[in-house]
Fold this protein.
Amino acid sequence: MNGIMETITARPLVPALAASAVVAGALLDWRLGLLLVLWLLPWGVNTVLAASGKRAAYLAVPVVFGVTLLVLWQVAVRLYGVNQVILPAPTDIWWALLEAPAILWADFVQTVVKGAISGYVIGAALAIGTAIAVDRSQFLQRGLLPVGNFIAALPIVGTAPILVMWFGFGWQSKAAVVVVMVFFPILVNAVAGLKATEAMQRDLMHTYAASYWQGLFKLRLPAALPFIFNGLKVCTTLALIGAIVAEFFGSPIVGMGFRIKTSFGTLELAMVWAEIAVAAVAGSGLYGLVALAERRLTFWHPSQQRKR
Amino acid sequence: MSDLTQSAPRSGLSLGLREAARGALPVAVVVGVLLAVWLAAVAPMNFRLALDQATRGGADVMPATPQEQGETGLIRLMLDNPGVLSAAYRFERPRLPRPQDVLIEMRDNTVGLARGCEWTGWGEGRESWTGLSDGCMRVLTNRRSLIFHAWQTLAPTLVGFAIGTGLGILLAIGIVHNRTMDLGVMPWAIASQTIPILAIAPMVIVVLNAVGVQGLLPKSLISSYLSFFPVVVGMVKGLRSPGAMELDLMRTYSASGLQVFAKLRLPASLPYLFTSLKIGIAAALVGTIVAELPTGARFGLGARLLTGSYYGQTVQIWAALFTAAISAALLVWIIGFVEKRTLSRMGLVR
């Protein structure tokens, strides 16, 4: 309580400004006033929390902010009677999620598990394999790095129509799009990572009379892991995007991209948003898994140690 | 590779050339190998189609009926019917066109569209504001022109990129100077990058069209969203990059908050900003192209991809893809160029 009073007395102007903004908003339109209250009140709570400097604030502040956004979204949609087609309320999306778990699960399996994850694994394995293969040749590296960097910046998702034409409408074509999308970012990172050892460390392996493969597995591959994980983390989102966008060009009657497209056609917008929610959870989940693996495997790296 | 050419000593032109060649040769070899693989893949990719055509045309092919052909392996078929190989390379609507076919398509749909180029002057009797004849302007204005479609995609990309970058920089400044924003917004800014929001870009366009927002703006909204977060994250990192020493120095000068920002934080953040800008503009272009995909957009590279896919015009798809690639490379190159000039003038060459 003391902390709150201190914060307010230290900057008396800020709450006064906020209050006058609310009054002004309410005079214009009572709904606007209510929304302003709903925005400024949690913001004030967050300011106090952030100023308290407690460890719990690091968790509480983003949670409060996220909940505020959700509440504002819900209240604004209801108060202003926004058309479902333009923006459904969070509760509508929640009901859509609860109504059709079987459909959403089937779509998830088709797009994320069969399309995105299988393509992601194949693409990553191919990229790391290629990186190890070209690692021995300075010449190939100097050729492949600029080309790979160039291709990594291109709109590769545009190859989706071609790959759907080649591999059919099933999940194989989605996996193929994902393979192409994730290959180059991971390749570039892996090639850079394999060069990350210092001469001193390589010399040490040399004095141990380590063979090429021993040097690779005991020194250079572990040293490359932070780089490889950088690429892997960037590519989790790319994989999902590739799998969903490829379904726009043709798919069986299951899959997240298919559902988004058809639900949109029949104006079941809550379903579209439910799929987006699933995609968001899947994307964050995939990223979290890779980040967890990174923490386990590269615990020795400074970037991981500082976080603890 | 540019680093290599730059580090070439200035003494002696031949040495510099050799250095440049050292950098260019591996790239040329890799590109050459890729092209060779492409060219070699054309035959197996198109062979069954070509064989089918040859069978129906009454040519003498090895397993005579399509049924038997379907049961025979591809390599066996290719070995038994070497005569069809050349047909596979000249196939009308191939599954995989030859590289040169794509180049020809690109030429036909750019400079090949010109119908008589004349200088009409800017005065009386001019045909367009450039002073060139209308036949010449077809290269830019014809509905088949890839330059026309590329511009339809690039214009919203650039507008969106400008909006996204501006907002991103503003938010980053807020995050650095306000602890509440730092703790509250930053985790969401990072988390939002793991969400495949691009996948719903087409829907956003249609919704915006339905409520009356049309033209450039809906597409720019997508690209601004996509370029927004890389800029926020990079800029926050950059604005925080000055160390305790430098901040202390500013204090000994008794610099105000605004001065610390303008003279220390902002200049220090530029290298980070440029890196994010390169990521942001590539993402913005991808965003616009995807946004054009299933929305029935008539113009733009995404629309070219989609119509090509509907009508089985593979060469058109490849040409649109290459134009997109060239556009992306051009945009990234421009930012890289500005980066190099700016940083070297600031004495911050990396």
Summary: Chain A touches chain B through 56 residues (CB under 8 Å). The CA atoms of residues 281 and 287 of chain A lie 10 Å apart. Chain A has two domains: 2-82, 96-305.
